[in-house]
What we know:
Blueprint: E1 16-20, H1 25-37, E2 44-52, H2 64-83, E3 87-97, H3 101-111, E4 115-119, H4 125-131, H5 134-141, E5 146-149
Parallel strand pairs: 1-2, 1-4, 2-3, 4-5
Helix pairs in contact: 3-5
Amino acid sequence: MVGRPTPGRCSGVFDRILLAVDGSEHSHRAVAATAELAATGKTEVLVLHLQELGVAGRAGPIPLEERSEAADLVNTVADELRSAGVTVHGAAHAVLTRDVAPEIISSAKDFDAGLIVMGTRGMSDFAALLIGSVAHKVIHHAHCPVLVTR
């Protein structure tokens, strides 16, 4: 976990966690970690999925099927967490952006999250240097600690 101390917020217990998911294996590990962290039953979790605009770009609105898949992913994760006794809020945002990191950070601030949990795709250092890693950007710009699973 990477984080910066926030006065009055670093008790080791997180009241609110933002969980960013994308359906990958690393994302599944983030879900498991969140379930473990929120096992007290007093932690609220916001499940967030953002759709990233591809490098080549895309014009027009996001197709209904993709929005439906995003909602299904969030609902599946939310149900999994609820079955573990976690209080969950779900949000599937169909955001067309080349950089989802600022959206994750903004959503965490709006939710007043004390922790952001997310997976990493594990791209090579060279690829991350060229295009930037979402996890790297979130770690360096978030207002709260960030737990990244691999």
